[in-house]
Design goal:
Blueprint: H1 17-24, E1 42-43, E2 50-54, H2 59-64, H3 71-83, E3 91-94, E4 101-104, E5 107-110, H4 115-132, E6 136-140, H5 142-149, H6 155-158, E7 162-164, E8 171-175, H7 178-183, H8 186-204
Parallel strand pairs: 2-3, 2-6, 6-8
Antiparallel strand pairs: 1-3, 4-5, 7-8
Helix pairs in contact: 3-8
Length: 207
């Protein structure tokens, strides 16, 4: 596995979301910053009871500097509305803060982060959780879940189940990433969306 120095040395001693966001702009804990437009850190209130963790920014997020503003973001917005969750009330972040991509002509296509990228970025996620101290974490997608629960964690086997996370983490509910709903065949998409919404409802009921 490629070794990176990791984010720990860039995390400020003064722990606030503003300080973390500012410091993240200078993070060189792995190589993803070199080809990204900008860091895409987080959004949402400091006292959120529910925190949603995605995988990494996509092309739209990298350009705009905001989370879930592309097609997967529209799926998430629809799912949150159906689950009765106000997006502005939740804390949104990603396990990896920079966009990893490969070129295909003029397009930038999403490329899965390496395990070493996830490990290098994990101190940011842990610092955010410490500051926000949510009641429940929703881990959306394998990268998000495995970042905190270990490389062997299976979202498909444990999705929608309330798990006790290791250490000082709050309760977690793992689910699929909204992009997986988009990738589903047309005849399966509604069922996958329904399952995603139900997972969000399970998490919201714990707050």
């Amino acid at each position: 596995m490629t070794e990176f120095p990791g984010a720990s040395q860039f995390i400020p001693g003064s722990r606030s979301l503003a300080a973390l966001r500012a410091a993240a702009e200078q993070c060189r804990g792995c190589d993803l910053w070199e080809r990204s437009t900008q860091v895409v850190f987080s959004e949402g209130p400091r006292n959120a009871g529910l925190a949603l963790v995605g995988e990494q920014p996509g092309d739209h997020e990298d350009i705009e500097g905001r989370l879930f503003v592309g097609p997967a973001g529209r799926v998430l917005d629809d799912a949150l509305e159906r689950a009765g969750i106000d997006r502005s009330s939740v804390y949104l972040t990603n396990a990896v803060k920079h966009f990893r991509w490969k070129a295909r002509g003029k397009r930038r296509l999403h490329e899965r982060p390496l395990r070493s990228h996830v490990v290098a970025c994990r101190p940011w996620l842990r610092a955010e959780i410490d500051v926000v101290s949510p009641d429940v974490l929703v881990l959306m997608g394998a990268i998000a879940a495995q970042s905190l629960l270990g490389a062997d964690f299976s979202v498909l086997r444990r999705r929608g189940v309330v798990d006790d996370a290791p250490g000082d983490l709050p309760a977690v509910v793992a689910t699929v990433h909204p992009s997986s709903v988009l990738r589903a065949p047309d005849d399966e998409r509604r069922a996958r969306m329904d399952e995603f919404v139900e997972d969000l409802r399970v998490a919201a009921a714990l707050v």
